[in-house]
Design a protein that fits this description.
single chain; alpha/beta; Rossmann fold; Dihydrodipicolinate Reductase, domain 2; 2 domains; eight-stranded mixed sheet; 11 helices
């Protein structure tokens, strides 16, 4: 699914060309090309064969999360830069191995966290960087989504520890968790509870609730689920002594003790957006592609300018570290766990 988005978007990125596609199921890659009216694109079932025969600058890796490391290293050993779908990997040591491989082979590596390019989310981030909240009191993210049993069974790898690395939190909520730490700052400690409430056949959680302690001393909350019909848009909240802001399908709240002249225009433009999709709340495919395009364009621009992208490995690991700490806490009946 995510691979099809990349097939669709790469030809639309300035100065980018879709060179080839690879899938172990050729019918799937063929369908992705046909859906997007793309012809004459070579198709492969083995990445090694594609790397050998095609002149490629960048590999877009949209495979199950738990095999990102092996395939990305294979590409980097061939001298290719790599863009990896979220999460970058499901274990911190694997992300570090990938980062070291990029250094060793002199190539670039970056992850996809497209919601950073949502204007409302970026407004919250910029306000935090500018110190407009003052002493931060609390921040939280809520991913109240819904998935059917069929979603898990059709994927094959979804809902497994080995390839998905977890459930509603590692796969779906990782986007909001990335936003939370990007906006509110590093998380120091977590205490979590998790289980599968309505999907009995999956190995992992479909619901998790956690309390947080940020390094700043602020408190926080993370809620992630795929068990709440019909599914609601992601909500990010942050507040402190001088202001509060909420992002949810637009800028729902953006109120500060000291207003800036540009605040009114920002609120007017973003306050009541008529979203074309649910952002993934009701279906994995119900996601606006424009944010992916902005993320990819940013990565390629940064690399062309000789610098790491905003979603570099060191940045991409942060959300995974929080997720893994919450899983450890949940396995120990909510005992506090420090984030690595």
């Amino acid at each position: 699914m995510a691979g099809e988005w990349h097939v669709r978007l790469v030809p639309k990125i300035p100065n980018a060309t879709l060179v080839a596609v690879c899938d172990i199921d050729p019918a799937r890659s063929q369908a992705a090309l046909e859906k997007n009216s793309l012809t004459g694109i070579p198709q492969y079932v083995d990445m090694a064969d594609m790397l050998k025969k095609e002149r490629i600058d960048v590999i877009h890796l949209a495979t199950p999360s738990g095999n990102h490391m092996a395939l990305s290293i294979q590409a980097m050993e061939a001298g290719k830069n790599v863009i990896v779908e979220k999460p970058m990997e499901i274990q911190l040591d694997r992300i570090e191995t990938m980062r070291q491989a990029s250094i060793k082979h002199g190539v670039r590596l970056a992850g996809i966290f497209q919601n950073r390019w949502n204007e409302a989310n970026r407004a919250l981030h910029d306000a935090r960087v500018q110190g407009r909240f003052g002493t931060l009191t609390w921040a939280g993210c809520f991913t109240m989504w819904y998935r059917t049993d069929k979603y898990y069974s059709d994927g094959g790898w979804r809902g497994t520890w080995a390839l998905d690395g977890g459930g509603a939190v590692m796969n779906q909520s990782v986007h909001a968790i990335d936003l939370l730490q990007w906006i509110a700052g590093p998380v120091k400690q977590v205490s979590a509870y998790a289980s599968s409430r309505i999907h009995p056949k999956i190995e992992v959680e479909d619901s998790l609730s956690a309390s947080l302690l940020f390094e700043s001393g602020a408190y926080g909350t993370i809620v992630g689920t795929t068990a709440m019909y019909p599914g609601l848009p992601v909500r990010i909240e942050i507040g402190g002594e001088n202001g509060t802001a909420v992002s949810e399908n637009g800028l729902k709240v953006f109120k500060f003790r000291q207003e800036l002249p540009e605040d009114k225009n920002l609120i007017a433009r973003l306050a009541d957006l008529k979203a074309a999709t649910t952002g993934g709340a009701t279906s994995a495919a119900d996601v606006p592609p424009d944010l992916h395009a902005r993320n990819i364009h940013h990565i390629l621009t940064a690399w062309e300018e000789g610098r790491d992208a905003e979603t570099s490995p060191l940045e991409a690991r942060k959300s995974v570290a929080i997720v893994l700490a919450m899983y450890q806490s949940a396995r120990n009946n909510g005992a506090p766990v420090k984030v690595e």
